[in-house]
Amino acid sequence: GHPRSALGWRWRRLRRRWRLRRWRQLRRCLRWRIQLRRRSAAERRPVGFGWPRVVSTKDDLARVLSLHDSPYHGLTLCLGSFSANPGQDAVDAVRTFMDRIHFTHVRNIKHLGNGDFTEVAHRACEGSVDTTGIMRAYAEAGYQGYVRPDHGRHLWDENTTNKPRPGYGLYDRALGVQYLLGAWDAFRHGA
Questions:
Q1: Structural domain tally of the chain?
Q2: What global pTM score does this model have?
Q3: Tally of CA atoms within 13 A in the half-sphere of 142 that contains its CB
């Protein structure tokens, strides 16, 4: 993430706010068995008045999870957002946080070399994210959480207004889920 993403004062402030809010919520969630999740940020650069993103690296995720040691305090791990920083290893993050990942967006991005990225198809060979390795890690661990094939490329015009929504097309998500299910099945059956 951004070099200033783990500033001490930001973490102290975040922790203070997080603990107060989350502790109240956590007590209710424990009673009702509801899971709380934190999602990583997609941008590697500061946003909004030059403030850094607070959660964008593996270390940042570990810090957030350390705020409360509870099975109801976990992650929505968006692997495209996490991989926006070229230095992050998504497969390693999945293996590290497996027991705290409640929901995951498996998506693929391609780094453009200038610090930007673009959404691409889910196949590992299409982009910079090892989606096949990610599905192997989930399958080998017997992951029981929710998986969503997030984004993808807009392949066909899906409406009559000719105003597509790139990244959220019905057909490319359908193709993405089939690719991910194929990888899941292969790894669950010993491929």
A1: 1
A2: 0.72
A3: 0
